[in-house]
Design a protein that fits this description.
single chain, 3 helices
Length: 95
């Protein structure tokens, strides 16, 4: 589906001191993943949510180079690991 002509995917940034950003690092570290926050050049719904004043982080399994392709796929092991990160994040959120 093509976005409407007036749709703009704005850049976003979440302060590292927000609860969600601060909790994400330890959740990634616990799963053996690099907890360093990085910027990316692709858009996501996070930019719209962030513009509404809600702190957001972008995280998920797969490789962005494979996204939105006819043969798009995600390794199930990555989905499992991502779900473990999210569970750890939820359990530790706000502590």
């Amino acid at each position: 589906e093509v976005p409407p002509a007036d749709f703009i995917s704005y850049p976003m940034e979440t302060n590292a001191q927000t609860t969600i950003a601060a909790a994400m690092g330890p959740a990634l570290d616990a799963a053996g993943l690099d907890p360093e926050a990085i910027g990316v050049t692709y858009g996501s719904d996070a930019s719209v949510i962030g513009r509404a004043g809600i702190p957001v982080v972008v995280f998920g399994p797969g490789n962005i180079d494979d996204a939105h392709q006819p043969d798009e796929s995600v390794d199930l092991a990555q989905v499992q690991r991502a779900s473990e990160v999210i569970e750890t994040l939820i359990r530790g959120y706000g502590r």
